[in-house]
# Entry
Amino acid sequence: MAAQLKAPNAKENWPVHKKTCSSIKKKSNNDPIPCVMLGAQAGGPSAYRKTTIPSNDDIFNQAPAPISQRFGFPLILRRTKPASQYSTRSANDDNPHATWLMIDPGHGFAPPEWQSGVGDVLVVRADRKPLDIATLAMITDYVSDILDAFGDGMEGDEVARKYYRKERLVTASNGRISTQD
# Structure
């Protein structure tokens, strides 16, 4: 009786295959990731600027902004200077769009430290995918709609039912954001 041949086990072959597999993209620990700087603007909306950060930046150790988690597109924000470095808080350091992104999804208010004197803020996607200006602008417009709902007297649970679904964000973005993002 002839010996039966056993098919190779994928797990056993992985260490050898891994070295030559062309479908694995080698990513260094500091590959640049496109993101957006929200610049403070005296008396006006925040200024958006393209920038990059290394993929191993410690910003990715921070928790995402609660409102962005609620509607399914987690963003992480970091001030470029801690609030303590501003000798005096002024309107020149206000950053309304950063403040909007830090609102509490239950009542629509940002924590006090995010309400004034915020300064410039770096915004990245928590999943380390690229973030462009147009996408972030669309998201801040969406958060503006949420703030309007709170301002119109909607309660937190009503706002949650209406806005805190990724499908709603996808629709509002006119296809710019998909359910796969």
